[in-house]
Amino acid sequence: MHGPAMSGWLLMALCAVTGSYCLLRTRTGSAEERRAARAEALMGFGMAAMAIPAAAVAPPAWGWGVYAVLFGVAALRALWFSRRSGHHLHHLVGSAAMVYMAVVMARAGTGGHGGGHASHAMGSHSMAGAGGIPLLTGLLLVYYAVYVLRSGARLVPVAAAATGGGPAPGGWGARPELALACRLTMGIAMFAMLLTL
Question: How far apart are CA 197 and CA 191, in angstroms?
């Protein structure tokens, strides 16, 4: 990421906590809710790994390829499950965005600017400028900006309704406002990662 390493560490911690909560959500709810929670946990942990500052841990050259394959498979899985639930279309966009960022970083690493993660963290440029393909990066930024604003607007009524009814049955892992806040957090983190690409 461009900028100080502290922002990378904070983003990494935020994504790791979000991924952990999503992993806890896999223990409650319907099969569809558990499937969505697993996809969101993968996204959270993957974003946490990509946000680690390169000054602390420089990923191996093959690491970006692993990210691309992993999230490519996740995108295919999301495409398959999108037949049942429209929420998986969001997972498809998120996985495709992760593949895109991994490819941009891999190309930055082979472009003579040092390791992909290091050039990303220090502000080097390759692949049509600083952010990969500007039109695609811009479209993803617009998608995540709208997603974050929409999720934030939906969170306010859910939180207000939840405070009046007491704790949700099934424990804190089944609370809808926490799941929505988790998605909102990952949307903000994805926006930040794309913005600094």
Answer: 10
**58 DSSP 8-state letter:** P
pLDDT tens per residue across span 69-125: 999 999 999 999 888 877 789 999 999 999 999 999 888 776 644 444 444 443 433
The phi and psi torsions of 170 (rounded to 5 degrees) equal 95, 5
Residue with tokens 């790791």: 16
Radius of gyration from C-alpha coordinates of the chain: 17
Q: Please, what's the b/e burial string for 60-74 (b: 16 or more CB within 10 A of its CB; e: otherwise)?
A: eeebbeebbebbbeb
Instruction: List, for residues 124-150, the tens digit of each pLDDT value.
Output: 334 445 568 999 999 999 999 999 999
